[in-house]
Amino acid sequence: MDKKDVEITAGVRYSDPLILYFTGYEKCDPSHSFGPAIRTHYLIHYVVKGSGRFHENGRVHSLHAGDLFLILPGQITYYEADRETPWEYCWVGFDGYEAASILKSCGLWEEQPVRNNAGLNLEAVLFELHRRNQAGEGNSYAYTGLLYELFSHLLAEGGAEKKPASREYLKKALEYIHHNYVYDIHITDIAEHVGVDRTYLYRLFCAEKNLSPKQYLIRYRLHIAARLLKETDYTVTEIAYSCGFGDAPSFSRHFHSRFRMTPTAYRKQKEDPMLLPANR
After folding, report:
1. CA–CA gap between residue 82 and residue 161 (Å, rounded)
2. Measured distance CA(114)–CA(77) in Å, rounded
3. CA max distance for the chain
């Protein structure tokens, strides 16, 4: 069975963003080993005590208490306890269509499947997750919540390289606009959501988008409106309100300023002009 076959047989794993499969704990005998084997899900082992070795992709990692290692779906791995100080470890198996992106953001993936000195917070969450799962306490949402808490500690303890604060602020502002453009939002609302003052937000947008926050908001609304004009039969008034404009005349005025034609004339065009350039 090759990796492609494994991915096909494990297709059900994409039905949820993140889902717990199982947890476990074992105090291994000296030289106890597992594999070589392939898993169809993600699996994290955390070393509680002792030491051992993890083999993957031709590499061997010597691990000790506080370390963890990740096994990816379709990956052939082998791991063994030390002969003198065999490890004790706990593990969690999981999957979901968000699992890969979450792990990568935490700095865990094929290039770096090991984390040294993962931290006591991580151990506490893993033990609580295992305890609840074994006792049948809670439900799938409770287990998923603990999984997300687990990843939050992984991210805090040394995830992927952090982006500059300004880029995080801009990302948060753009997400707010993209999710709330239909409402009567103002620049102060965006600034409060991001946690910066509006002057800083203004400078940030001008530096990164060559537009003020207000200009970007209007441009984005018009981008959505243009698409609705082409792809739906909604009236101009319905589209105006659906895109956050207070009335049809105001919408038509902004639209004409942007595209040099009325919304009705635009709807009749066979091809769209460039609406919102990627660098804007």
Report:
1. 33
2. 13
3. 80
What pLDDT score was predicted for residue 158? 57
Can you say how many angstroms the Cα of residue 178 is from the centroid of all Cα atoms in its chain? 17
Spatial separation of the C-alpha atoms in residues 28 and 94, rounded to whole Å: 22
Give the torsion sign (CA, 205, 206, 208, 210).
Answer: positive
Q: What is the DSSP letter of 85?
A: S
Tokens 């409060």, located at residue: 192
Q: Which residue has the tokens 């300004």?
A: 166
Q: Per-block average pLDDT, block size 10, for the chain (280 residues)?
A: 38 70 94 93 95 95 95 95 96 93 89 85 88 87 91 72 69 93 94 89 91 95 94 94 94 95 87 45
Residue 92: helix, strand or coil by DSSP?
A: strand
CA distance 80 to 169: 45
List, in order, residues 6 or more apart from 30 with CB less than 8 Å away: 81, 82, 83, 84, 86
**272: number of CA atoms within 13 Å, CB side?**
14
Task: Give pLDDT, residue 32.
Answer: 95
Q: Long-range pairs for 123-126 at CB < 8 Å and ≥24 separation?
A: 123/46, 123/48, 123/66, 123/90, 125/149, 125/150, 125/153, 126/23, 126/46, 126/90, 126/92, 126/150
| C-alpha–C-alpha distance, residues 277 and 280, integer Å | 5
